[in-house]
């Protein structure tokens, strides 16, 4: 009984100490934000220095202004925005690969805003750090002899896991979107071939298909039509589609349409051939995935079911020999 009371008192004292440490960290963070927000701590930016000399210039049109940023709860995100942006720049300088990030953002159907993505990585890292801190708190309460480097290492692992987890989530989002586009591609190509066979031009066929269909590929085709209406020719707009996606099938599709439009070859036959090629690629991919899954299915059979079967076959004979001895 005395031992139980002693352990409970130790747990309570450890909990109070962690509560005091958390309150101290929060007070220190608040004081740091207040000091960083003072006028003497703020370095004027280039816009701040040039603003007094540009006040007489006419205001630009509100139609060209960027939409205002989303406001967070109680203005917290606005307060932390400069620090999150600065931390995102540090993360980008350490990790690098801004070109790859911009390409994956386009492939995922998101704006190619690398700075915003770095800020999201910082937020994910902060969440991972909080999770690591919670785990270290639980471990330290359960085992009072845990060393401080191990606790700090767990927090750093949580931060790194959050940063890399956001990058992995972006890659998965881009891959899933491209998989949906490949699924929609044969149907869209057949619809385009039917529209062209009925007498529609290339732009008219794209407009008709965009009106009748919904999906990721249809959204990209609408983007191409918007670029064409903005002044770009159709081959250039379609080449933008190939550049925004990392799919070889769509690149071949765009090349076929561009060649058919520029040289006057029958567009309907090209589209049907492209749709058939994509179906064949999908069939081959499905067979490859089936072969990989078949190999993975052998793992539980070989390492779980087969040893149990051999054990049931051998155990009666072994027990009988042991009884005879």
UniProtKB/TrEMBL annotation:
<protein>
    <submittedName>
        <fullName>Tight adherence protein C</fullName>
    </submittedName>
</protein>
<keyword id="KW-0812">Transmembrane</keyword>
<keyword id="KW-1003">Cell membrane</keyword>
<feature type="domain" description="Type II secretion system protein GspF">
    <location>
        <begin position="190"/>
        <end position="312"/>
    </location>
</feature>
<keyword id="KW-1133">Transmembrane helix</keyword>
<feature type="transmembrane region" description="Helical">
    <location>
        <begin position="16"/>
        <end position="38"/>
    </location>
</feature>
<keyword id="KW-0472">Membrane</keyword>
<dbReference type="InterPro" id="IPR018076">
    <property type="entry name" value="T2SS_GspF_dom"/>
</dbReference>
<feature type="transmembrane region" description="Helical">
    <location>
        <begin position="295"/>
        <end position="315"/>
    </location>
</feature>
<feature type="transmembrane region" description="Helical">
    <location>
        <begin position="122"/>
        <end position="142"/>
    </location>
</feature>
<dbReference type="GO" id="GO:0005886">
    <property type="term" value="C:plasma membrane"/>
</dbReference>
<feature type="transmembrane region" description="Helical">
    <location>
        <begin position="148"/>
        <end position="170"/>
    </location>
</feature>
<dbReference type="Pfam" id="PF00482">
    <property type="entry name" value="T2SSF"/>
</dbReference>
């Amino acid at each position: 009984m005395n031992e139980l009371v002693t352990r409970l008192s130790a747990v309570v004292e450890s909990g109070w100490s962690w509560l005091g440490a958390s309150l101290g960290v929060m007070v220190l963070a608040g004081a740091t934000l207040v000091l960083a927000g003072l006028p003497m701590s703020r370095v004027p930016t280039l816009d701040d220095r040039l603003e007094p000399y540009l006040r007489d210039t006419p205001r630009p049109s509100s139609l060209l202004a960027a939409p205002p940023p989303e406001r967070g709860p109680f203005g917290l995100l606005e307060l932390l925005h400069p620090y999150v942006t600065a931390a995102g720049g540090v993360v980008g300088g350490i990790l690098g690969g801004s070109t790859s990030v911009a390409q994956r953002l386009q492939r995922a159907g998101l704006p190619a805003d690398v700075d915003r993505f770095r800020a999201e990585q910082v937020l994910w890292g902060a969440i991972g750090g909080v999770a690591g801190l919670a785990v270290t708190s639980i471990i330290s309460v359960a085992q009072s002899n845990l060393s401080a480097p191990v606790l700090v290492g767990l927090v750093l692992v949580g931060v790194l896991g959050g940063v890399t987890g956001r990058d992995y989530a972006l890659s998965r989002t881009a891959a899933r979107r491209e998989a949906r586009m490949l699924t929609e591609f044969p149907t869209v190509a057949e619809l385009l071939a039917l529209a062209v066979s009925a007498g529609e031009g290339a732009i008219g066929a794209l407009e008709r298909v965009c009106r009748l269909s919904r999906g990721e590929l249809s959204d990209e085709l609408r983007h191409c039509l918007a670029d064409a209406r903005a002044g770009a020719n159709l081959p250039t707009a379609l080449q933008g589609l190939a550049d925004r996606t990392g799919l070889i099938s769509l690149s071949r599709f765009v090349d076929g349409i561009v060649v058919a439009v520029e040289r006057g070859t029958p567009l309907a036959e090209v589209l049907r051939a492209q749709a058939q090629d994509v179906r064949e690629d999908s069939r081959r991919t499905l067979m490859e995935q089936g072969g990989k899954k078949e190999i993975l299915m052998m793992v539980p059979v070989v390492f779980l079911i087969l040893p149990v079967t051999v054990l049931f076959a051998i155990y009666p004979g072994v027990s009988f020999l042991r009884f005879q001895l």
